[in-house]
Write a structure and sequence with these properties.
alpha/beta
Length: about 775
């Protein structure tokens, strides 16, 4: 794609070379200058001076035609215009040689051709596109144009009036000659004004300057034509046409090199301050002085022109001052906008971290009255909303939450968004009341692009003490917020120093877990899933264990949340899945028909949100050659509740032939609804329904209802936490056919599973 230059750039042009058209044009200029001198001694030889224009004009026309780039239309007009001028020169030469021309008058045909060439160039100039301008800029541009035109008319009046009578008494050719002289001057003025005020559009600025100079040279010839009236063998076109075409060749070469450099036009930034109006005043005033010194008869007209020019420049100055004032106002507004953007969040309009810390620093200054608190608010499960419904809905939710928070912030209090789904408050009064109101407000459904969403927030609150800094206070609020999340979310907690110790412990725990995983210090145990009443091995559930070198055995309930919080659960979970599938294949080879018929792997909510999770499962099955129906993925209700991404992952896994087990069934508020949407094959009945089943009453009723649901929906029910023979017998009477628990076996090593025997016969290898 061609590169276009910015307003402040100019392309670096290729080095100018001594081209043959330029050399030829220079030689033609020298030849054209020589023939008039020779004609002083040999009048008949001066006619040969027309040979130089005859060669120079076609050469310039070809060069102009070759120039272009995106400005090609203008240069085609220039080529056509110089061709008309050349034809006019040829007609002029014919008139002079044939004796039908009386210098300095030209024939009607000659004058018409010259005038046609000027018109063609004017049409080309008019086709150069201008730039967009404001109303004040157009007004200033209009005054500038009017100033130049009045100045040009004043000079034209002074130069033309002395000859007007002779031209008026002459024929049509004489009048066309006068119009050509005046028109040439206005072409030069128009080109200069076009460059100075409207921009050059697709034309190189320097090339257009040279084009204007070429027109000026040609026009100058018309003004000196009367000086050559006495020698009838001389004509200004013989010398001025080669000079004009030389400048035109330079202009075309400049345009061609600019096109090669930028592969497109340049767009120089227009100057807001121009010397043109003031130059017009000086020129008109100078003309008035000269005219007065000569006691010319057109003093009144020139004085009127000078007066009008002065008025126009004065009006233009007023417009420029208004334009400058508007620019200053725009600049001030832009500065205010930039200052606001630097201190506020672009999405919600709330203060950002920098502004919050600035106000907090002021509130914590030694001379500040009263105390201050900082509350950090983090939306619970926001990522699942972003993943399931898209970022547009997520952004709309963030804006709606910001509005609800801001409603409860008054006076000197500040509400801010720190990034993502984190908000912060600087509070000076009763912080607990404000936070309670915010929590209540957020629990009301939030409408976001067609979705009514119910959200909760975890909030940490830190009160200031003498000597506290804003950064430290914000850190304490962050610690309290994470503690609130760990305690169940949807609440706020006040910071206490003990939280720092727990936070440090959790950080060390996460670091140690990373080290243990990298070093291969994590291990797997397998708890049997048996058929009842015979207690034969049906399957196994894979359990992750960590034996810390200093702290000993660490409970999964302790280190799994740390892995979830840091994201380490994803690579750890992938390793567990791969190792469990490999071991299942080994058992098949070693144990034959006695091998576990299914291996269950627990999968966290964090893993289910990974977009490639289902593909990773498929890859592991292919690598290990484990039949898909022998793998069971076990998830909790909370992992899939209100999470479209998790449900999509489970459906993709089920499509592979992998079984899906729902753990802790019956303990969540959404269990029955999940059975309709989630591709469940197995229900793991929670220990809470099993441990009191022998007591009768509502425990037995609930256990009976759960097995009825499983039978009705053709699901496999697995009772968890079976610890006694009485519990096993009662479950069997109710219709349960699969169970797991310490009654049958504690979690076993690989060798323990290989040597497993039903309850009542001790296995050879066990593990705690």
């Amino acid at each position: 794609m061609p590169r276009r230059f910015s307003a402040d750039e100019q392309p670096t042009l290729p080095a100018w070379r001594l081209s043959w058209p330029f050399v030829m044009s220079c030689l033609l200029v020298l030849a054209a200058a020589a023939w008039p001198v020779i004609g002083l001694w040999f009048p008949s030889a001066a006619v040969l001076g027309w040979l130089a224009p005859a060669v120079a004009v076609p050469l310039a026309a070809i060069e102009a035609w070759r120039a272009g780039g995106s400005g090609r239309p203008l240069w085609r007009y220039v080529s056509a215009g110089i061709t008309f001028v050349g034809c006019g020169a040829a007609s002029d030469a014919h008139d002079l040689v044939s004796g039908t021309r009386s210098a300095p008058h030209a024939s009607a045909m000659t004058a018409a051709l010259y005038f046609a060439g000027l018109l063609v160039v004017v049409v080309g100039l008019l086709r150069i596109p201008g730039e967009r301008r404001s109303r004040l800029e157009w007004a200033r541009f209009g005054f500038d144009i009017a100033t130049v035109i009045v100045t040009a008319l004043t000079f034209a009046w002074h130069l033309v009036i002395p000859r007007w009578q002779s031209w008026a008494d002459g024929n049509v050719a004489d009048q066309l000659s006068a119009l050509t002289i005046v028109g040439g001057g206005f072409v030069c003025v128009f080109a200069f004004v076009k460059v100075a005020f409207t921009g050059t559009g697709p034309i190189d600025r320097r090339a257009l300057h040279l084009l204007a100079l070429a027109g000026a040279v040609g026009t100058a010839g018309g003004t000196v034509a009367p000086l050559l009236a006495t020698p009838p063998f001389l004509n200004t076109s013989q010398l001025l046409l080669p000079i004009t075409t030389l400048v035109l060749v330079l202009a075309a070469d400049r345009q061609r090199r600019a096109t090669q450099a930028g592969n497109g036009p340049t767009h120089p930034k227009p100057h807001r301050w121009s010397l043109m109006p003031y130059a017009a005043i000086l020129a008109t005033g100078g003309l008035l002085l000269v005219s007065s010194a000569q006691h010319a008869s057109d003093n009144v007209a020139i004085a009127a022109g000078a007066f009008i020019v002065t008025l126009l420049v004065g009006a233009r100055q007023i417009v420029a001052l208004r334009d400058n004032a508007q620019l200053l106002n725009d600049l001030d507004a832009r500065q205010r906008e930039l200052a606001h953007q630097a201190s506020h969040d672009t999405l919600t309009g709330l203060a950002n971290r920098a502004l919050l810390l600035q106000h907090a620093t002021q509130a914590l200054a030694p001379d500040a009255s009263g105390g201050a608190s900082i509350a950090l608010i983090d939306l619970d499960n926001f990522k699942s909303i972003n993943d399931d419904l898209g970022h547009a809905v997520g952004d709309a939710l963030l804006v709606a939450v910001a509005h609800r928070i801001a409603k409860h912030v008054h006076g000197a209090d500040i509400s801010a968004r720190l990034g993502g789904d984190e908000y912060a408050l600087l509070l000076h009064g009763d912080a607990e009341t404000t936070l309670a109101a915010i929590i209540t407000s957020l629990r009301q459904p939030v409408h976001a692009i067609g979705h009514d969403l119910v959200i909760e927030a975890s909030i940490g609150l830190a009160r200031s003490h003498r000597g506290d800094t804003a950064v430290e206070l914000l850190r304490r609020a962050d610690v309290a917020m994470y503690e609130a999340k760990n305690q169940g979310k949807g609440r706020y907690l006040l910071y206490t120093p003990a939280m720092d110790q727990r936070g440090a412990d959790q950080a060390r725990l996460a670091a140690d877990l990373r080290t243990a995983f990298d070093a291969g210090d994590l291990s797997l145990l397998y708890q049997p899933i048996v058929s009842i009443p015979d207690g034969k091995l049906f399957g196994v559930e894979t359990l992750l264990r960590w034996n810390h070198p200093e702290r000993g055995s660490i409970s999964p309930a302790t280190f799994i949340p740390a892995a979830e919080r840091t994201g380490l659960i994803v690579p750890i979970g992938a390793w567990v899945l791969r190792e469990a599938c490999r071991q299942a294949v080994r058992w098949q080879h070693e144990m034959g028909v006695d091998a576990p018929r299914t291996v269950t792997v627990n999968v966290s909510a964090r893993q289910l949100r990974e977009v490639d999770f289902a593909a990773d499962v498929a890859a592991v099955l292919q690598q290990t050659a484990l039949a898909p129906h022998m793998l069971t993925v076990e998830v909790t209700e909370t992992a899939v509740f209100d999470s479209g991404t998790a449900l999509q992952a489970l459906h993709a896994i089920a499509a592979l032939g992998v079984k899906v087990a729902l753990d802790d069934f019956g303990t969540g508020h959404s269990s029955l609804g999940l059975l309709q949407n989630c591709p469940v094959d197995i229900l793991k009945v929670d220990k809470a329904f099993v441990e009191h089943i022998t007591d009768g009453g509502h425990h037995r009723v609930l256990a009976t209802a759960l097995i009825d649901i499983c039978d009705g929906m053709q699901l496999r029910a697995v009772a968890e936490g079976v610890e006694t023979a009485e519990q096993a017998d009662e479950l069997h009477r109710l219709g349960y056919r699969y169970a797991q628990g310490f009654y049958y076996a504690r979690p076993l090593t690989v060798a323990g599973i290989t040597a497993y025997t039903p309850a009542g016969e001790q296995p050879s290898v066990t593990a705690a």
